[in-house]
């Protein structure tokens, strides 16, 4: 599944530093606005300790994690919706992503210029969110005018779309995000085609100077209050520290570095999990002598749909799925013990996948 999370924010808040940490791709980062013009794209492994344990028990030498695509989009400024600061180009990049990762600066540093002259994460968030809403408002207004003409001519699909667009237009005019508007099953694909930015799930990243989450920081508390009001998620981390950790090639060195900071896991691992949850994703595993692998699916998918992620033939010719939970494997110690305990079962086409399922699909094409 190709799913992309766009990293946005004002210039100089830590976006490219975060991207460097996520991908270790060396995306350019500098202390001046519009350092990033063309979006950098990186595919990031979503490390999962469960998969490590499965591979160890099964005895496979190869581990393949699920992945998440992150897109580093240049810093937006006031007036971006009107083209300021190459805004039209940057907004077009955001439209193509599935979710938005909004980086907010939550630290003071006289050596790092702030485009607005001071550190105020709530103000910064409002600037970006306003520009996204204004761009959406313009897109909805133009689409509404076109579809109203078709609706008057008796086009049934246009009638359905106009109803949804009118509600979204009203919400945007009131300063609300398009995601706050409920749409029907019939309206959903029509609205989705517009790629409205304020309909995308939002994750705030509170970029701090200290890598330890939970320390007293009034800026972070402001971000948490903002996210709570918007029913959005927050991940607190230090982009600079995460970039330093990512430069360590050896996993043991990374563990030692984290331990020295008093951390059990990196902020990037927490960010990747939060992005997964934001997009309504979950993971199932396959494990054999050649490899142990994590596969990404949407919550609520059935076994045949999950099989289709591996190959379309698996879904088309689906017969049964041999399934057990990874926790049963951890508790019993081997696949044989899982089977002997009656924990391995055969499921059919109606089975709804659970996070952590270990699966062997049976199919015939």
What does this structure look like?
This protein is α/β, with parallel strands linked by helices. The protein has 14 helices and 12 strands. The protein has helices spanning 15-23, 49-58, 87-95, 121-152, 156-173, 188-192, 218-230, 239-246, 251-260, 267-278, 303-310, 312-316, 326-332, 335-340, and strands spanning 4-8, 40-46, 63-64, 66-72, 99-105, 202-207, 233-237, 281-287, 292-298, 318-325, 345-347, 357-363. The protein has a 6-stranded mixed β-sheet, sandwiched between helices. The longest helix has 32 residues, at 121-152. The model is unreliable at 25-38 and 83-88 (pLDDT under 50).
Sum this structure up briefly.
By secondary structure, the protein is an alpha/beta fold. It contains 14 helices and twelve strands.
N→C terminal distance: 22 Å
> Quick one: overall form?
flat
The SSE order reads EHEHEEHEHHHEHEHHHEEHHEHHEE
**Secondary-structure-derived class:** alpha/beta
Mean model confidence by pLDDT: 86
Separate helix tally: 14
Question: Which regions have little confidence, pLDDT < 50, spanning 5+ residues?
Answer: 25-38, 83-88
Alpha carbon gyration radius: 23 Å
